[in-house]
Write a structure and sequence with these properties.
The structure is a single chain. It contains 13 helices and 15 strands. It is α+β, with helices and mostly antiparallel strands and 434 residues long. The chain has 3 domains: 88 residues, 2-Layer Sandwich (Phosphorylase Kinase, domain 1), CATH 3.30.200; 184 residues, Transferase(Phosphotransferase) domain 1 (Transferase(Phosphotransferase), domain 1, Orthogonal Bundle), CATH 1.10.510.10; 105 residues, 2-Layer Sandwich (TATA-Binding Protein). Strands 1-2-3-5-4 form a 5-stranded antiparallel beta sheet. α4 runs antiparallel to α6. It is elongated, with a radius of gyration of 26 Å.
């Protein structure tokens, strides 16, 4: 599980996040230079201090997320990246948080954006095919997991140290749960030059077919060095997209022309599918299928005693790093709190029992690492459950059910809760951490 993460600050204007290495990340990550920034996030190079592994750390402001109405995007991006494990999909290691920021700790793509490479000149047909094969392998996998990217473009395709492709940025992705009863998605999204004609029609669309269209635009850009649909006037460009009007460069081979025509077919019902792509002669040249062992990606049941929670389970584990308003239903969290402790679970249970007895509150064992506290008149019930966080830390989840709000709040907040404060883990925070 993730240790809490420092806030990187505003930086000094030269790409530095404003922290010395010894100040960073609770001895877990060092934060390095700024790699890029957008309206809602900054991405830094980082290093795992225990393994030396390079990582990318995407820092998102919670305030900007709330103001920009992007809560759903962040929740969806976390949920989506949790379910994707593929050699050509950027890996998300963990999600951390402070009071003001969320940190996505991700695989570091040393080669940068594919866009940067293609901006220097078009690729050969063989190299274009190689990257397109990697892209389709990743996209087909995402579709099999119920995820549709909806914003595929060279800026969202990264390269690792071996110059292999990594699909990134799932902030605009959709999942099957968002499909309406008509079997289609309806949210308008994507980048204008890569958007499929059926999205422009505003009548609903198939997420898989939209991704195939965007893959076709990417392939065209790789081999041509420029966009198939482009015009200074946005409406003129949209008309070209809607009609599928584009020209091939003179160097495009007949087989590639045929293949691209099937990818950039404006009628989604006639457009080639991922399965058909995988069997196309142009695509299959030199193609090596990636073996995926699905059992590695499915969660295994764990015993309660051995279970360690990861960052996704405890993303709101304490008030100091509270994301509950962002990532959960507020109604369910009115009477819920979590705290982290370095005490052994047995010692925590003993302390709770001791405190409860001093206030004439009944204690009932609910499970090995759990108890229920019941008020004398049954006016409140507190369920306490303990789960191991790391070898040293546990998370204590407290759920309070009130029948008489005034009376139970006084008993819990004024008498019981303060006596548990010495159980709370208080790390030594570096300067500037919130």
């Amino acid at each position: 599980m993730a240790a809490p993460v420092v806030e990187v600050g505003n930086g000094s204007g030269n790409g530095s996040p404003g922290l010395l290495p010894e100040d960073a990340l609770f001895d877990k990550y060092e934060i390095g230079k700024l790699l890029g920034c957008g309206a809602f996030a900054k991405v830094y190079h980082g290093r795992n201090v225990s393994t030396g592994q390079s990582v990318a750390i995407k820092v998102v402001s919670k305030q900007k997320i709330v103001k920009g109405g992007l809560m759903g995007h962040v929740k969806r991006e976390i949920a989506i990246m949790r379910r994707l494990h593929h050699p050509h999909v950027l890996n998300l290691f963990e999600v951390l948080a402070t009071k003001t920021k969320i940190f996505f700790v991700m695989e570091f793509a040393k080669g940068g954006e594919l866009f940067t490479r293609i901006a220097k000149g078009r690729f050969s047909e063989d190299l274009s095919r190689r990257y397109f094969q990697q892209l389709i392998s990743a996209v087909g996998y995402c579709h099999s997991r119920g995820v549709f990217h909806r914003d595929l473009k060279p800026e969202n395709l990264l390269l690792d140290e071996n110059w292999d492709l990594k699909v990134s940025d799932f902030g605009l992705s959709a999942v099957k749960d968002q499909i309406r009863p008509d079997g289609l998605l309806h949210t308008l999204c994507g980048t204008p030059a890569y958007v499929a004609p059926e999205i422009l029609a505003k009548k609903g669309y198939d997420g898989a077919k939209v991704d195939v269209w965007s893959c076709g635009v990417v392939l065209y850009v790789l081999q041509a060095g420029y966009l198939p649909f482009n015009d200074p006037n946005l409406m003129v460009m949209y008309r070209k997209i809607y009609k599928g009007e584009f020209r091939f460069p003179k160097w495009t081979s007949p087989d590639l022309r045929r293949f691209l025509s099937r990818l950039l077919e404006p009628n989604p019902d006639s457009r080639i599918t991922v399965d058909e792509i995988l069997h196309d002669p142009w695509f299959r040249k030199g193609y090596k299928e990636i073996e995926l062992h699905w059992e590695e990606f499915d969660p295994k049941p764990e015993s309660d005693k051995d279970k360690c929670l990861n960052a996704f389970h405890i993303i709101s584990f304490s008030t100091g790093f509270d994301l509950s308003r962002l990532l959960n239903d507020p109604v369910e969290l009115v009477h819920q709190e979590r705290l982290v402790s370095a005490e052994e679970p047995e010692r925590i249970i003993e302390k709770i029992e001791e405190v409860a007895r001093s206030e004439n509150v009944t204690v009932r064992k609910s499970e090995e690492w759990g108890v229920t506290l019941v008020g004398q008149n049954g006016n409140f019930v507190v369920d306490v459950e303990i789960n191991r966080l790391t070898e040293e830390l546990v998370v204590v989840e407290i759920k309070r059910r009130e029948m008489d709000a005034g009376s139970s709040q006084q008993i819990w907040k004024d008498k019981l809760r303060p006596k548990l404060n010495d159980l709370v883990y208080k790390p030594d925070l570096p300067d500037g951490v919130q």
